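Weekly modeling sync, notes
Attendees: S.R. (lead), two postdocs, one rotation student

Agenda item 3: backlog of single-chain predictions. S.R. asked that every request posted to the team notebook include the full sequence so nobody has to chase files. The rotation student volunteered to paste the first one in as an example of the format we agreed on. Action items at the bottom.

Example entry:
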Amino acid sequence: MNEHIVKSFEDELNTLTAECARMGGLTEAQVADALDAVVKRDQALASAVVGRDDRLDTLEAEIERKAIRLIALRGPMAHDLRRTVAAMKIATNLERCGDLAKNIAKRSLVIVESEPMTPLTRSIERMGRLVVLRLKEVLDAYTGADVERAVAVWSRDDEVDEHYNSLFRELLTYMMGDPRTITACAHLLFIAKNLERIGDHATNIAEIVHYEITGEEMISKRPKTDALNP
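Predicted structure, as returned to the notebook:
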């Protein structure tokens, strides 16, 4: 390829990466805002999170379309191909994180009708802050092409599971102690599960970043604490 074509191809790749990174920033904000809506019992913020979800769906579709077009017209090889496919796969994981954030926001709109349960809300907040941090770290690893940082996120996957298991037991204790809390606790349990799944998507992204950069799959088994299911 001549120099002009090579530069044009590189520009397209850089644009794809930048759009995926932008989608990552929006997703991170969605998850953080959904968590704040739960913690602060903020109905307006919860409604805003629900309303913004379509934006992530649109971005995922655009990234997928551009990646497929790039593969079809440019025929990228080796690292360039991995970089193209990584953007598409990461966008899919981010879109699913956005769906989970929307679900959290919807449940917070129901919970706000119940009496506050401050200790449980604090536990949800601790878990949520950890998940938001994991998402931020892995997105930073992606934009910085930092394989070590991606592996660090991957290796701490079980921390989110441990938070979820602890919350599961705490919620069951509340429900058994006071049946009037069952409805609100059930919604909190689903919120915790959604956060745990967002953590899994962050780990998925870490694996994608590792493969994009090294061309190798993660050999070790993913560190995982068996998560309880509601």
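Discussion: group reviewed the output briefly. The chain has one domain: 3-214.
Action items: rotation student to repeat for the remaining queue; S.R. to check formatting next week.
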